[in-house]
Amino acid sequence: MPRPKGRRNHRFEERRREIAGRIGQRLIAPDGARASLRELASAAGVSLPTLRHYFGDRDGVLAAGVEELGRTGAFWLQATRSVNTELPLGPSMRWLLDMFAIGWERGVGSMMSSGLAAGLESDVVGPAVVDALLEPMLQATETRLAEHRRRGEVQGDLRHAALALVCPALLALMHQHGLRGARCRPLDLPAFLDEHTERFVAGWGGRAPMSVPHGQDPVVPDEPLR
Questions:
Q1: Worst-scoring range by mean pLDDT, 4-18, 51-65, 138-152?
Q2: What pTM does this model have?
Q3: Helix axes 89-103, 74-82, angle to 10 degrees
Q4: Alpha-carbon gap, residue 125 to 225, rounded angstroms
Q5: Is the pLDDT of residue 174 over 80?
């Protein structure tokens, strides 16, 4: 029976993922986000017409590579969701931040850095980075925090809490490693993570929220930055 017009066969999707996996590995090389379409084709072991056939333009190629990279993070996401959640809030969050730091050195850092470098200001690659890399990490953290809220250890919006926990740690890791900040302004990362955990627990660990008045709008320049 002939395949209905417009429907991709199974082999097409299988081959597409195979090529995208090779693109993902090229992306995490030091210059991966800057690779030309020709260099990406070479890394994938295919011709330029083949690459365009499966992915369209360069942004489509990079987005597919990012999506495949995201699939390699299943171990870290599962650990984020469920390992050591029986610990009290403080030790649980500190363990999680330690795991982020270890993961950063074991490939997660290259994946995040390359994804962000390729995705910033891109209408195609940017959403792929959010969907495949950033949101899975944040949502796994929300799942972990939900267990602590079930025990009465966390208050407030879990999405906000996950952002509050993850973003400073992510920025510190990018500052020290991805951007080589350790060379010009080194940070005692364990001490930072200790204090960050302590203040996170103090802020989100069930205390009454501070009342923040809505005052005047901030003063900003009339002209945009150029």
A1: 4-18
A2: 0.87
A3: 170
A4: 24
A5: yes
Q: 73-204 has which CATH code? A: 1.10.357
Correct CATH for 11-66 of 1.10.10, 1.10.260, 1.10.287, 1.25.40: 1.10.10
Helix axes 48-55, 10-27, angle to 10 degrees: 110
Look over the chain and give the mean of its residue pLDDT values, rounded to a whole number. Answer: 91
Tokens of 36: 């030309």
Domain ranges in the chain are 11-66, 73-204
**Which positions ≥6 away from 135 have C-beta within 8 Å?**
none
User: CB within 8 A of 153, min separation 6: which ones?
Assistant: 88, 89, 205, 206
Cα(171)–Cα(119) distance, rounded to whole angstroms?
A: 16
